[in-house]
Amino acid sequence: MARYSVLMISADAESTVSLHDQFRKAGYDLAFVQSADEALEAARRDLPQAIVLDSEVPGLDVAAVANDLRSTPRTRHIHLTLLAPQSGRDTRLAALSAGVDEFVTKPVDVEELELRIRNALRRSAYQNLVNPITGLPGPYLIEERLRELLQAPYAWAMMRLSLRGYKPFTDVYGFLAGEEVLRFAGRLFGEVLNAYSTPQDFLGHSGDDIFVMITSPDSLADLRNELRRRFDEGIKSHYSFREREQGYLLVRNTDGSETRVPLMTLVIRTVTSEDGPFADIRELAAF
Questions:
Q1: pTM (predicted TM-score)
Q2: Where exactly are the structural domains of the chain?
Q3: Which CATH class, in words, describes the domain spanning 139-285?
Q4: CATH number of 5-126
Q5: Local confidence band at 174 (pLDDT 50, 70, 90 cut-offs)
Q6: For the chain, which terminus, N or C, has the lower number of CB atoms within 10 Å?
């Protein structure tokens, strides 16, 4: 089962406890915030697969939050659920018009809410909207963003990030450890990109160990350096102490011999709008 990440905006301590217990028990990574500013910052930084908004949080403009998330390439794929009392028709309609996907009537049946979100995220993964391992935008949303770049009136830079040494690592450690590496990489890439945030930022996971990042050319050099530095530091924790010390992994071949494989490194290939013009997204996807 994929491990889902959910962000909740709630100021109700009692409901927070029951929601926390239900979602944790179901295997979600769960975070709570209490304001719109905190929610938008966490959404850009952590890229949760789903956000739950409580319409009764004091001062929360649900429609404004939804508009902000939907107008930003990096966050517009996130599934949004509104919690609202049955009497709050105007709030529900404004939120749905702004891009909220569904609403659940308060008081909330926490089990129903969890199942609704789980089913929505499963559909997204099935339709290639999000990667089932990292929760990042998947192939369909990446292609959609590339089509937008063909017509973009601004300068942009796109990076193709891949993990050299990923397959030998999974051969030795197994696919579950490999999935943890992908989740680590997705979180790290999002954190670094957030530090150089621009309106055109985008991060996607096309499959296997391949990620796509879109940003401004102005921050490209610093971004690449920080990505490599952070990855080189963080990836070591996925290896044993001995392998970290020796700097390589021993992979057994079919004939019984062993090959030394260096620890994983981050490979970055870059294309910018100045390399164009581009007539088709296949030119961008193939670089």
A1: 0.82
A2: 5-126, 139-285
A3: alpha beta
A4: 3.40.50.2300
A5: very high
A6: N
